[in-house]
Amino acid sequence: MTVPVMQTPTEISQRLLTPGQAPFMGVVMLDTRFPRPVGDLGNLATWPVPVNIRVVRGIWPDKVVQSAAGLHAGRVGPAFASVVRALVREGAAAITTTCGFLVLLQKELQAATKVPVITSSLMLLPKLLAAQPRVGVLTISATRLGKEHLRAAGVPRERLGDVVVQGVDPKGEFATRILGNQPELDLALARADVVAAAVALKAREPTLTDVVLECTNMPPYRDAITEVTGLKTWCLLDDERLFRPFQALREPYPCSR
């Protein structure tokens, strides 16, 4: 099944939020045009709290899904910080992003505001590693996700070897459509790519029980991952720090399985 392009996040968020409504979740999104099914962090229907999604124009996926050196060379931090400050001025009580690789900007973006900023699901790793000997990570690019990203997420240096990173097929539907910022996505093929990566991860580490979904486009397939592999999945929606300002409003929407 091929999914058509959805309406722009700005158009949808303007209908979701009434003028002056606060608090809301501020979501800083890359300049993308690929479809975002429910579960994707860029889809407003995914969120259990009021949300406003703001696009950083001109920052496409291939500019952010980079090594630490590549991301910093692109000097994208100021553009993201500007959007963060704008969202907070409008009433955002917490800030997140739609790309796990932006964990490299965690300190910079948190310094731009006093509200909680959680840039990436990778920031769940320290808590999970405290309870598990090893934790998996599914990513859109295993070749570009490095130790610098894990360290920026708070993983202790001595535990870096306990994080098992597995990427999707770089030539598959999921990676090529998203990194190529294409307007259509075959959900069945994308699901197969993500599940195949989870199967490969489990084959490498049979005793693994938990996996963090680095890519915010992966949660729509979390049930399929668990059904096939038995792995418990984690994403940004499981980070309680992000939702503390909304505890009176939040409805159950567990991403983890």
What this model shows, in words?
- The protein has two domains: 2-120 and 238-246, Rossmann fold (3-Layer(aba) Sandwich); 122-236, Rossmann fold.
- It has eleven helices and ten strands.
- The strands form three sheets. Strands 3-2-4-5 form a four-stranded parallel beta sheet. It has a four-stranded parallel beta sheet with strand order 7-6-9-10, sandwiched between helices. The protein has a two-stranded antiparallel ribbon with strand order 1-8.
- By secondary structure, it is of the alpha/beta class.
Estimate the global geometry from the Cα principal axes.
Answer: globular
Annotated CATH architecture of the largest domain: 3-Layer(aba) Sandwich
CATH class of the largest domain: Alpha Beta
State the order of secondary-structure elements, H for helix, E for strand.
Answer: EHEEHHHEHEHEHEHEHEHEH
- Report the end-to-end length measured between terminal Cα atoms: 25 Å
What oligomeric state do the depicted chains represent?
single chain
Radius of gyration: 17 Å
Q: What name does CATH use for the topology of the largest domain?
A: Rossmann fold
Number of helices: 11
Q: What does the average pLDDT come to?
A: 90
List segments where confidence is low: pLDDT < 50 over at least 5 consecutive residues. 1-16
